[in-house]
Design brief:
By secondary structure, this protein is an alpha+beta fold. It contains twelve helices and six strands. It is elongated, with a radius of gyration of 30 Å.
Length: 380
């Protein structure tokens, strides 16, 4: 009963500090992203509500990024606090081994891994899907913004647009477009009727019963072409991106692991990249658990010192950097290999090896002998 209470006591401290660190890091990353997003949306004439909705949908991806660092920081902070308050020394004097003391950090790591699994496998795909739908809605709103009757509009430099009337059915009557973006060519489009259509490549303007007039700079010849129907891309005018297909972040983990022909065609990605991403969704939460274990266990190295655990904290930080370097290297290389998805588990495997090595090193008899005189000296 005593042991379970000790575990609960340490785990609650770890969760509290983890929540604080995660909140601070999420706020920093979120503000950094939100500034650029706010600039883009405000300049595009969008409301504050759209900005808040889009910025909140980016939070799950931010949580995925900062959770391992927050768990590491919480483990180091709590282990340092327990040592400075002599609680760790008391537990060791009661016969707790280093592996037994690390059990609370393991429980904490498993809780973080479970939360991370929910974020990476469910929240991020759902948020990415909603974000795409919201972008599609913004695209339609932008299209409507540049289609107003009885006004000369300039949606972009070199483009002038005029519509005499918009019917109740959405038909655009007597449209005029002047396109002088190419300094060597001036193009004038006129059409009796036009319709806005949407497909995977973005919004388009279908012009019916019209005429195209082209004049090259430096020449006095005007080329005139009449057409029964003509398609003019509105994506170039309003600078929208295609919204029809899903991206990798929207696919479920099962779809990524299967990497079927439909997923490859829809995302325009290689099979190796899809499988690596799917396995990374499973392995990254485990990595977050081991960053906590490494941070907690590394502070066991060396004897008790009233001056603090500065060098242990530096060692823990170096081990975290090594872990992230391995992750970056595998992320850049593994997707190009046929069975590169296996390397998605290189980081958590290395984390497990480092954790065991640190705990084994801390439990060597030499370390125990160094701790006993310090306790005896304190007793005298």
């Amino acid at each position: 009963m005593l042991m379970s209470r000790i575990d609960r006591y340490i785990v609650m401290q770890l969760l509290g500090v983890f929540g604080f660190f995660a909140l601070i890091l999420v706020a920093i990353y979120w503000v950094n992203r939100a500034v650029g997003l706010l600039d883009a949306l405000v300049s595009d004439g969008q409301s504050v509500g759209v900005f808040l909705q889009m910025s909140l949908l980016t939070v799950p991806s931010v949580v995925e990024l900062i959770a391992p660092m927050a768990s590491f920081g919480a483990a180091v902070f709590v282990a340092n606090k327990l040592t400075n308050d002599s609680e760790m020394v008391v537990l060791q004097a009661l016969g707790f081994s280093y592996f037994r003391l690390a059990r609370a950090a393991l429980i904490f790591g498993l809780i973080v891994a479970l939360m991370m699994s929910l974020v990476t496998n469910f929240l991020i795909p759902a948020a990415a899907s909603q974000l795409r739908e919201l972008n599609g809605e913004i695209t339609r709103n932008n299209t409507a913004k540049y289609l107003k009757e009885g006004q000369f509009l300039q949606p972009d430099v070199g483009i002038v647009l005029y519509i005499r009337e918009i019917s109740a059915t959405g038909e655009l009557l007597d449209m005029f477009i002047s396109d002088t973006r190419d300094p060597m060519v001036q193009q004038l489009y006129t059409a009796q009727r036009s319709f806005v259509i949407n497909d995977a490549s973005g919004p388009k303007l279908l012009m019916v019963d019209g005429m195209l007039q082209r004049k090259l700079r430096g020449q006095s010849i005007l080329s005139v072409s009449r057409f029964a129907d003509f398609t003019y891309s509105l994506s170039a005018l309003i600078k929208d991106t295609p919204q029809g297909q899903r991206g990798i972040s929207e696919l479920s983990t099962l779809d990524l692991l299967r990497a079927g022909p439909n997923a490859v065609a829809e995302t325009a990605s290689a099979v190796g990249w899809l499988r690596y991403t799917g396995n990374l969704r499973l392995s990254w939460p485990i990595t977050a658990a081991f960053t906590a274990m490494i941070g907690f266990a590394t502070l066991f190295l060396g004897a008790f010192n009233r001056r603090g655990l500065l060098w242990q904290i530096l060692v823990a930080t170096m081990l975290l950097i090594v872990l992230y370097l391995v992750h970056i290297i595998t992320l850049s290389r593994a997707p190009a290999w046929p069975n590169g998805w296996i390397l998605a588990y290189a980081t958590p495997v290395l984390g497990a090896v480092l954790t065991w090595s640190v705990l084994w090193r801390a439990g060597l008899p030499k370390g125990k002998r160094r701790l006993i005189p310090a306790q005896n000296g304190a007793a005298r």
